[in-house]
Amino acid sequence: MAECLLVLIATDIYWNSAWQKLRSPQFHSGLYLAQWVHTYSQVKDRLPYRRQYAVPAPVRRYAGNLTDRDIYLWRMVAATVIAAEIALPPALLIAETAPYAVAAGIGIHAAFTCLKPRQLITFSGLTAAIHLAFAP
Fold first, then answer.
1. What is the pTM of this model?
2. Please, are residues 29 and 75 in contact by the beta-carbon 8 Å criterion?
3. What is the mean pLDDT of residues 88-102?
4. Per-residue model confidence (pLDDT) at position 52
5. How many Cβ atoms from other residues are within 10 Å of residue 38's Cβ?
6. Mean pLDDT estimate for the chain
7. Rounded to whole angstroms, how far apart are CA atoms 81 and 78?
8. Nearest Cα residue to 102 out of 135, 67, 54, 53
9. Quick check: 104 and 134 in contact, CB under 8 A?
10. Do residues 34 and 70 make contact, with C-beta atoms less than 8 angstroms apart?
11. CB 67: neighbour CB atoms within 10 A?
12. Which pLDDT tens digit goes with each residue over 10-52?
């Protein structure tokens, strides 16, 4: 019963997030993520809490510009995030897919925390805890 309630909470969080991302042309086009990484690459050394951010140098170097290729790459990342947010809650309930859903959910939230640690640390920590409840 507790697992069902956790899945309901996760479903609400993930599906609402996916819905907002689907409704945002800038996000699902990849432009938001491309602009965010590009801007971060330009100002990272001037940020007051710069040590808290962990966008890897290869990401900044190979996907930190605003070229058509970069925007396409971030569009694929955005589509993957949206698809994962839709698929993760039901996958937690299926014994065969639960370990993969747990790993994917924790990985996604680790990446989110690297992008915006001050804003997302509590949210990502709580959501990762929901996933750990389904760990075998």
1. 0.83
2. yes
3. 88
4. 64
5. 19
6. 85
7. 5
8. 135
9. no
10. yes
11. 12
12. 889 889 999 999 999 999 899 999 998 898 888 888 877 666 6
Length of the chain: 136
Residue 18 in tokens: 């996916």
> Angle, to 10 degrees, between the axis of helix 68-93 and the axis of helix 31-43?
110
Distances (CA, A) of 60 to 28, 38, 39, 55, 95: 20, 7, 10, 7, 37
pLDDT average, residue stretch 60-68: 90
C-alpha dihedral sign at 61, 67, 73, 75: positive
Q: Which stretches within 64-116 are classed as H helix?
A: 68-93, 98-115
Would you call 88 exposed, middle or buried from its count of C-beta atoms within 10 A (0-12, 13-18, 19+)? Answer: buried
The arithmetic mean of pLDDT across residues 76-99, rounded, is 91
Here the tokens at position 80 are: 């993957």
